[in-house]
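Consider the following assembly input.
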Amino acid sequence: MSLSDLVLSIADNKQMLGLRYAEWATRAPSLEADIAAAAMGLDDLGHSRVLYGCLEPLGADPRGPQRESDPASLSNLAYFDEPWTEWSQFVAANAILDTAFTTMIEACAGGSVEVLQHRLRKMLMEERYHFLHGRSWLRSGIDSSPLDRAWREAIEWFGPPDGETATLHRDGKLSMGPAELRARLEEQLEMKAPRVAVEWTAWDPVRRRSSPGAIDQHTFAMLRGLEEKKYAPPSAAKQPAS
Amino acid sequence: MTKYQRVSGDAIEYEVFARKTRVEPLHQVGSVVAPDADLAMAYARATYDEERWVEMAIVRKDDLIHLWSPGEA
């Protein structure tokens, strides 16, 4: 696992978070929450573009051709594999996972790598409003099941205490390691994480998750543009490329 | 599925003010309904972010002190 793998994981997760937010842009409990879901979705899709753009300057773009055909090659958390069916899932992702990604971005921006220092600052400002939204809805009370799952996946995503994320911290490339990231997340949310026992031997250091699986076929096809082609007129397929 | 109430007894209306340049005064651009100021800030930013404002602020509608209202002058 390299710093590029970590940045790719943030980018893939932000892309999926943005898409899942956007799916709730007409289903949230209020018109304001609909608009916030749409706006946060656009923010996170934009952030993912910035993060993908950091891969080349980092020197080693880990994206391979399998990303065109294999959804399991994307480095997203299992939480985003399927569309959410409950508002509680939205809130848990917004409060816990979105804030966890922001905390890691803080660690990147506060580290010694110049391209990350310079390019990630603006998204931290935008994320403030995601945090306020998530924390406020979290305080209103949600089901414990998505909340516990989001905490577990966030802690897994930060990585093992003695793994390569900790090494990146020791080397100064990240300003926080797994323990500091978790403490920062708890401090931000003003709550303690539930007890989570992670079996790190089953943890995939590139996808930063323990469970197998991948995003649903519809979402994967949409990401690749295949869903769009379904609606293209038949004549469009016959036209030679200019 | 969990039921959530939007406009309930604890929902508060906030007026949203903004300006595009330092030389112009803040003016009202709209309003949002939310149960607390944190959520109202997130909603105001999401709803009225179409312009490049240099400043945006919210205030509880209940905190406005009216000298008079339409029809009372």
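Chain B has a mean pLDDT of 87. Ask yourself how this observation constrains the way the partners meet.
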